[in-house]
Amino acid sequence: MTAPHTQPEPQREPPTPEGTTARTETAEAQAPPAPEASAERRQEVAQNRDEPTGGKVVHLHTAHPTVPIPYVTPGDMFTNARAAASLLPSPRKLAYYGILGGMAVVGALEWPVAVAVGAATEVITREQGARKRAGQTQERRRQAGPEPSARTEAAQRETATV
Question: Domain range spanning residue 132?
Answer without folding.
Answer: 90-154
